[in-house]
Amino acid sequence: MQENRKKQVLLVGNPNVGKSTVFNALCNKKQKTGNYAGVTVASHSGNYTYKNEEVEIVDLPGSYSIYPSSEDEAIFSKFLIDEQEKYSGVIYILEALSLKRGLLLFQQIQDLGVPVLLVVNQIDQAERRGININIPKLSEALNIKVIQTNAKEQIGIDEIREAVFNNAFQKSHQTFFEIPNEHKDFLHKIATHQQTDNEYKAWMSISSDLGSNTIESLGDLLNSPEAKSLVPKRLQVQETVRRYQQADKILTDVISKKPQFKELLTEKLDKILVHKFWGYVIFLIILLIIFQSVFFLAEYPMNWIDEFFAWAAGFTSEHLPEGPVNSLISNGIIPGIGGIVIFAPQIGILLYFLYLLEDSGYMARVIFLMDRFLRPFGLNGKSIVPLVSGTACAIPAIISTRNIENIRERILTILVTPFMTCSARLPVYSIIIGLIISDGTFLGIQYRALVLMGMYLLGFVVALLSSLILKGFIKDKGKTYLVMDLPTYKKPLFGYDFKMVLGKVWEFITGAGKIIFIVSIIIWFLSYFGPKQQPGEMVASDVHLEQSYLAKMGKAIEPAIAPLGYDWKMGVGILTSFVAREVFVGTMSTLYSLDDDAPEVKVIDKMRHDIKPNGEKVFSFATGVSILLFYAFAMQCISTLAVVYRETKSWKWTGFQLVMMTGLAYFVSMFMYQILK
To answer: What is residue 33's three-state secondary structure?
Structure first.
């Protein structure tokens, strides 16, 4: 039997042309797609096998040009140029509605001598707008094979696989870019020195710093008066203008348009959704609907999950033999894991709405709306992508800042993004809001939904205020402007997005579950044993919770947290949640199950009725507000700190962020508790 062969192929194109959707269709992967620039900020790879040939597809970040202006575009350019010997060719995705814009990068890749296969995606969108693309003429003009696709409907995917199998990648025998006459002699010297007949590679040596190794080898040539008189940015602009002129000539015979007598849906919606006043109002209404749904739609599945884990704890407590194993499982592991799983419906609902907004194209409008709003705070519209993404998780949100060109704006965005309420905070907010806020409504909207929305808005406001303060301490690297194409609105892939959510929720449960499992065992061990009670004992077992090692440790830190209104149990929860914020809820679930004779009672009810020795409620309104504010501001995530260091490459900024956020959380929580108690 013939052995599988393997080839590597790059997937390349502008942002928001359906690249990730093509990737998912080819590889049957579940990579997140979104209808706005900056979704893919690092290369992703996947594999598929076709006719006994294994193909690795590398999905590179979207870029408008070979010359990078941001971190994610730099990843694309470096991979494309430096790894040219490793891949068989490039599948270039060209959006049917933006052929001229996409041809700029396509021509640059062809002129580099890279083998290319051209795919025109989203043909259906062009047809709806009365745009007819003559594919045979386009193929003839570009001297390359062209495949039409509609990736969302799986149209054309098999044709791509067949073309890759047949090595239909083509190198162009013509150069689209005409070298300006005034530079030809100098470029000829560079090409001779490089021993290449590709003039465009020589051009790139003087118009960018991408080929750093090549530039170093040029030696005296780049120190000559001819070289020193050249300004790379001017050369890039000169190239861009000439390439667009060439694209206009090509597309004149390729594109024909039918007259449009009616306004398209996208134009109708944008009159309202990007309106300078109503746009913001509608955005807030959408957020309110999302947060109302987080409580309303999740109520029943959350109750079922809670009842199941309460039943499981009671069942194991009753049927397992008395002893340490019974206590560990019934009072430690089951309540701890149940305390996290119960919030899976809320996290799933929140993520599903976010995916639908991204997939539909609305999130691009949010970027446009927010640009003018964010400018005074030292940010730009692209900052809203990581800020909004931060409501799911700060880690991919911080990575997505690579799409921001300006260094100062990128650092500011990295520093303030963790203030955004991530899904790990949602379990903490949900349980505390459920403890201190009544189950009433205002104009049909639950008080709890309003408070939850308030916590999300608080995180956003504090992020902006922090950026406003910090921008004075970070030197500006030049003024930037937001230039972006607003994509057409598209019908979201409801089923695909639902599968994505299920995958993300499962990742949350398994990821947090592993941590909770370990933490639950540690907490149970420290709570089950304590200092010796009787003469001759080395260690006492099965002690009362108040007499355990855990209580001793918790009470040792109680003086530091008492001004915030916390008892030793909350202190233990805060310490364990430095691993991950959601661990606080699992820890509290375990602690409130360890010293209780009724495992079937819901954890939230145990917390609600818990009282201090002086008769006061442990979770009073003042204490609840203090906890909410602490978790709104504190940097309670080691993984986020690691990503901040990786992206900034600076211990200074990483340490500053940790101290700033934790210090702010402590003093604001203490201040509010002292006022409200």
So the answer is: coil
| Residues with Cβ within 8 Å of residue 245, at least 6 apart in sequence | none
d(CA 631, CA 52): 53
pLDDT (tens digit, 9 = 90+) per residue, 246-281?
Answer: 888 888 888 887 765 455 667 778 788 888 888 888
Measured in whole angstroms, the distance separating CA 73 from the mean position of its chain's CA atoms is 17
Cα separation, 326 vs 28, whole angstroms: 44
Angle, nearest 10°, between helix axes 278-296 and 447-470?
Answer: 130
Whose CA is closest to 69, among 105, 98, 99?
105
Strand extents, DSSP E, 352-498: 441-442, 445-446
Closest CA to 497 of 2, 4, 9, 34: 34
Rounded to two decimals, the pTM is 0.64
Are 561 and 571 within 8 A, CB to CB? yes
* CA–CA distance, 167 with 150 (Å, rounded to integer): 22
380/249 Cα distance (integer angstroms): 35
pLDDT the model gives residue 219: 56
Query: How many other CB atoms sit within 10 Å of the CB of residue 210?
Result: 18
* b (16+ CB within 10 A) / e for 222-245: beeeebeeeeeeebbeebeebbee
Instruction: Give every CB contact of residue 441 below 8 A, 6+ residues apart in sequence.
Output: 447
| Confidence band of 2 (pLDDT split at 50, 70, 90) | very low
**Amino acid at site 382:** K
Instruction: Return d(Cα 18, Cα 651) in angstroms, integer.
Output: 37
Pick the CATH number of 5-165 from 2.40.128.110, 2.40.37.10, 3.40.50.300, 3.40.50.2300: 3.40.50.300
- Pseudo-torsion of CA 613, 615, 618, 620, nearest 10°? -160
* Cβ atoms of 83 and 137 closer than 8 Å: no
Q: What is the C-alpha separation between 667 and 675, in angstroms, rounded?
A: 12
- 3-state secondary structure at position 260: coil
Closest CA to 69 of 120, 118, 15: 15
Q: How far apart are CA 327 and CA 322, in angstroms?
A: 8
- Give the type of residue at 607: M
What is the tally of helices (H) and strands (E) in the chain?
Answer: 31, 12
656 to each of 408, 562, 644, how far by Cα in Å? 16, 26, 11
Q: Are 165 and 49 in contact (CB under 8 A)?
A: no
- Can you name the residues that pair with 94 across neighbouring β-strands? 120
Burial (CB < 10 A; 0-12, 13-18, 19+), residue 325, is exposed
519-531 pLDDT tens trace: 778 877 877 777 7
Label the pairing between strands 255-257 and 116-121. unpaired
Contacts of 200 (CB under 8 A, 6+ apart): 108, 111, 112, 175, 177, 179
In this structure, what DSSP letter does residue 297 have?
T
Q: How do the domains of the chain map onto residue ranges?
A: 5-165, 181-257, 262-677
- Give dist(CA 393, CA 350) in Å, integer: 12
Q: Count the neighbouring beta carbons within 10 Å of the beta carbon of residue 116.
A: 24
Q: Residue 5 burial by CB count (10 A; 0-12/13-18/19+): exposed, middle or buried?
A: exposed
Cα 266 off chain centre by: 26
How far apart are the C-alpha atoms of 265 and 262, rounded to whole Å?
Answer: 9
Task: Give the span between the Cα atoms of 420 and 546, in whole angstroms.
Answer: 37
Q: Dihedral through CA 70, CA 74, CA 75, CA 76, nearest 10?
A: 100
User: Under DSSP, is residue 441 helix (H, G, I), strand (E, B) or coil?
Assistant: strand
pLDDT digits (tens, 9 = 90+) for 643-672: 888 888 888 888 999 999 999 999 999 999
Helix (H) or strand (E) holding 95: strand 89-95
**Among all chains, which residue has been given the structure tokens 């398209």?**
264
Structure tokens at 562: 């008492």
